[in-house]
Amino acid sequence: MNRLDCQIISLTRAPPTIPVLARWFVEEWASYYGPDGPGDAESDLRACRDDGVLPYSVVALDAERRVLGTASLKAESIGSDRFPGPWLAALLVSPRHRRHGVGSQLVAAIETAAWRFGHAELYVSTDRENLFARSRGWTRVGVTQSRRGRIVVLRLTRPAETL
Ligand SMILES: CC(C)(COP(=O)(O)OP(=O)(O)OC[C@H]1O[C@@H](n2cnc3c(N)ncnc32)[C@H](O)[C@@H]1OP(=O)(O)O)[C@@H](O)C(=O)NCCC(=O)NCCS
To answer: Tens digits of per-residue pLDDT, 27-36?
Structure first.
């Protein structure tokens, strides 16, 4: 499959994508963002900022500025009780556009943002260890349980060349 070229920008620069992303969040994480869950997808997305205070989010857009996916940098996630964060979280690519490298580009964008905001480490809790194992230096630091089952916690340390 071909790598899909996309533009990745701050969510604050693409507010019209929020209702679409909120609908995808409800579909993907129904137990949390669905009608019976505790989360409010649209208000979580609207809380995202651009000034180094978390949460921060990016969106991937195609050439027609249609949204393909999103990812966030958050202060807390599954595993925050054991690790300080910040966390790569809310990583989601629309089902039609998966397996074309969009998710990997979103991960790279959140890594860059974390270093730009001055963090020395970045964590993710995931059941998709492969997606991160491929990239620069994520290492497993823990295993935890969530309503999604077994989740591994991975850590990436800021590379020296970004200092
Ligand atoms: C997880 C998720 C974000 C990945 O997004 P994606 O755009 O499909 O990610 P990528 O295309 O970069 O990589 C996915 C796979 O496609 C493969 N791939 C990427 N580009 C490819 C290409 N050009 N040709 C063949 N395979 C390719 C990757 O190697 C990767 O393989 P893996 O499944 O063994 O890890 C997406 O599946 C999703 O939204 N899932 C539901 C939400 C979720 O689970 N989020 C939590 C993740 S922590």
So the answer is: 999 999 999 9
Residue 60: beta bridge partners?
8, 69
In sequence order, what DSSP letters do the residues of 124-137 get, joined into one string?
EEES-HHHHHTSS-
Q: What is the pTM of this model?
A: 0.94
- Cα separation values, 9 from 27, 65, 69, 87, 106, Å: 23, 11, 11, 18, 10
Indicate the domain borders of the chain. 7-162
Give the residues surrounding ligand 1 with Cβ less than 6 Å away: 1-3, 28, 91-93, 98-104, 126, 128, 130-131
* Ligand 1 pocket, mutate which of 4, 27, 93 (most atoms under 8 A from CB): 93
Ligand 1 centroid, distance to 102 Cα (angstroms): 7
- Specify the fold of 7-162: Aminopeptidase (3.40.630)
> What's the whole-number average pLDDT of the chain?
94
The residue assigned the tokens 């409800």 is: 26
